[in-house]
Amino acid sequence: MSVRELVVLGTASQVPTRHRNHNGYLLRWDGHGILFDPGEGTQRQMLRAGVAAHDLNRICVTHFHGDHSLGLAGVIQRINLDQVPHQVTAHYPASGQRFFERLRYATAYRETVKLTEAPVAADGPLAVTGAFTLDARRLSHPVESYGYRLTEPDGRRLLPERLAAHGIAGPDVGRLQREGALNGVTLEDVSEVRRGQRFAFVMDTRLCDGVYALAEGADMLVIESTFLDEDVQLAVDHGHLTAGQAAAVARDAGVRHLVLTHFSQRYADPEEFERQARAAGFEGELSIAQDLMRVPVPKR
Description:
By secondary structure, this protein is of the alpha/beta class. Helix content is 26%, strand content 26%. The chain has helices spanning 42-49, 66-69, 72-81, 97-104, 160-165, 171-179, 209-215, 232-238, 243-253, 271-279, and strands spanning 4-10, 24-29, 32-36, 58-60, 88-91, 115-117, 124-128, 133-138, 146-151, 155-158, 181-182, 185-186, 191-194, 198-202, 220-224, 257-261, 285-288, 294-296. The strands form 4 sheets. The chain has a 7-stranded mixed sheet. The chain has a 7-stranded mixed sheet with strand order 7-8-9-14-15-16-17. Strands 10-13 form a two-stranded antiparallel ribbon. It starts with a strand and ends with a strand.
């Protein structure tokens, strides 16, 4: 059975709190697992969430601040300890190559798994598979940072009334799908375009073109909202977003499900992030991320 969901491993910005671990987010996409921004403590959070090293196919790091990358050492060593049988690919800003190497070889261990390094140096596609395309876009933060976007290819949705009108039923439906035409009837005659699902991951950044490009038309947008709107100048100064800014991006981009995360420890009431997001005019599904939360990607 295919599963498409976000598993939230941590939601704190800068420092962990009693209730929030450093960042960490696993996207389950059918049989593929992408781990985003493994901060300190991610390996333990994976255990608590029922996520195994074998579930990981890619690791995507937005930038090399500690709350987004200090967990790399433990996660990489766990991948080797568990002898994950498939290739695991790591994406991260090319300018942080020295940081990645230090974390990858932070201590002695036995390498049993081929970890493929695929640094990001510019906007554009990072991987193209039959199931999705993974893209990166540059963000605006004091250190080089990239956001990520996963796009499923468009498909086709069969229309029962059109199939019936052409007298196509039973095994002939599968044959038409495989061959594209049957007795002069094409697949296009009895179906409509089903747009592929889109997932976007945006961490530490000010508002910039990259934020909007990543969010455009996303079925799910996971985005930082470090500050509340009254502290917008702090957000600008430190390269972050407020709850209202993040929600306005989602509103204008036509996002279906908005997940706010990466909260400053200065705020005691997480519900205020929801109130400010709604005040900004976002009317879609909204989740205020909590550690170990599971959020399904909206179906089409």
